[in-house]
Amino acid sequence: MRTGRSPLLLPSRGAQVLSLAAERQLYVVGQDVQRFGEQARSTVDEALEIASGLNQGPLAPAIAGGWAALESLLTEARDPDEREKVVAASRAAALVACSWPRAELTALSYRIREVPGDALADKLAACASNRERSTLVAAELESRDGLPLVRSWRTGSDVASVFRMKALLADRRPVLGRVRGYLEVSLRRLYRCRNIVLHGGSTGGVALPAALRVTAPLVGAALDRIAHSHLVAGVPPLALASRAETALRMVDDDLGPGLCDLID
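Above: the chain sequence. Below: its structure as tokens.
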């Protein structure tokens, strides 16, 4: 009699901190109590450990850990009161909104590079960084109607991405503001679900799985930007969030950053 195999791990929820792999870094976990003179691990290390259950951990710890990671990095004592800890949702939304254009344009650039014999694919192959690739794709979208895309099961998703980027390039500040609003609403929902878990002691709410499914990639994207800035430039999370909010306010300003330079 044959018996089927049951996977022990749950499917990944899509929370990825790719900066760790890009910078060939590991975050520090399980370190003993610090003694005087020893090098303490960073708050980013601690937040990544707290959020480690986001991808494949049980529902309640994933929700609690995901929000705790954001709150630990993106709030401070000067925030008005405990209820305003939800301000972490606004700051994380600004980070993700700023990183969205370059991320989506970069993903498109790699799809275009798979098209054989296209001049744009050759130009992209000569680019040395994702910033250069995303800037080139943005310029192409502004100068012509479409992009050469390889046909595959992902074609529908790629076409939708092209339409999103064209809408953004045509009306930058309103679109980015609207996207940030969507992100903040989703992350505030994560905060409320965390309260249901920790303060209500309930893991059976019908909204919990859906909220985690939507917000896990968003928390991962915010932590990815924070980890990158921490590793590469030593920029504290709150300072990075402040830069993101300033960049969003200066979109379309003559002295403001380009869409692919909203946040480094």
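The CA atoms of residues 97 and 176 lie 7 Å apart.
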